[in-house]
């Protein structure tokens, strides 16, 4: 899948998100149920969990829960909680959120890229607790 996506640099980010949104449904619909629930390269997460994480992250841009990322002591916990809440969701429900939230996130990114807001730095979680952020 990644060889078909544009380079993920800031000027191309909206294009990357659009390409990912176009490709992900094709990729996930090609998976068997066993593949959908198979372990991913992310320790402890299934393929379904990774897709749920991407959709939940995009959704968080539009909900108060998204502010948790800025003030959280643990970025790992911010990532785990929404995935934990989605573990029992059907593939159709995960993909519906992924597509809806991804569409909104891409639109938001287009707007942000065209405004001075791109110059505002926002920390992700507590950089003392997670110095690699």
TrEMBL record:
Gene Ontology MF term list: metal ion binding
Q: Where is the signal peptide?
A: none
Q: Which organism is it from?
A: Nonomuraea turkmeniaca
The protein, known as: DUF664 domain-containing protein
Under the heading SUPFAM superfamilies, the entry gives: DinB/YfiT-like putative metalloenzymes
**Gene3D superfamilies, from UniProt?**
dinb family like domain (1.20.120.450)
InterPro entries, sorted: DinB/YfiT-like, MDMPI_metal-binding
Domain Mycothiol-dependent maleylpyruvate isomerase metal-binding: from-to ranges: 17-123
Q: Name one Pfam family in it.
A: MDMPI_N
